[in-house]
Amino acid sequence: MMAGLIICASLSVVDGDTVKCNGQNMRLLGEGVPFVSGIDTPEIGSHARCLKERKLALIAKGRLRELLAEKGLRVMFSGAVDKTQTHRPLVNIYRTNGDELGKLLLREGLARTWSPKRRNDWCD
């Protein structure tokens, strides 16, 4: 798969920083650089380390769901995949006004900056 626009017949939310496009999980990059920077949202369900993180995860997921309901979104593949077993494509999603959704989640406090070898603590 080459970098560029992805056409999603169906686009849904998995969690605050993962979407499903045509049945494939894709991770939001948030205008970061693959493997150098990106965004991170709280873990959902059993992956959360505390009740506070679970609650924040549901809020972030709900906000991303609201944003994905907008018309005219553009999903752009960065050309890279993450290092998980499923090799999720790293993507940016843009609104019609040019706002990038991951960057918007950062501004709204629903995401934090991600960098390698550092796990965000959502329980503090």
Explain what you see.
By secondary structure, the protein is α+β, with helices and mostly antiparallel strands. It has a single domain, classed as OB fold (Dihydrolipoamide Acetyltransferase, E2P), CATH 2.40.50.90. The protein contains two helices and eight strands. It has helices spanning 51-68, 101-107; strands at 4-6, 11-15, 18-21, 24-28, 38-40, 74-81, 89-94, 112-114. A six-stranded mixed beta sheet has the order 1-6-7-4-3-2. Strands 5-8 form a two-stranded antiparallel sheet. The chain is globular. The termini are far apart. The model has no long low-confidence stretch (mean pLDDT 94).
Mean pLDDT: 94
> How many helix segments?
2
Largest sheet: 6 strands, mixed
What proportion of the residues form beta strands (DSSP E)?
25-35%
CATH topology: OB fold (Dihydrolipoamide Acetyltransferase, E2P)
Ends distance = 39 Å
Instruction: Report the principal-axis shape.
Output: globular
Tell me the count of domains: 1
Give the second-level CATH assignment, the architecture.
Beta Barrel
DSSP helix fraction: 10-25%
- CATH class division: Mainly Beta
Low-confidence runs (pLDDT<50, min 5 residues)?
none
Tell me the radius of gyration.
14 Å
Order of helices and strands: EEEEEHEEHE
Topology:
Blueprint: E1 4-6, E2 11-15, E3 18-21, E4 24-28, E5 38-40, H1 51-68, E6 74-81, E7 89-94, H2 101-107, E8 112-114
Parallel strand pairs: 4-7
Antiparallel strand pairs: 1-6, 2-3, 3-4, 5-8, 6-7
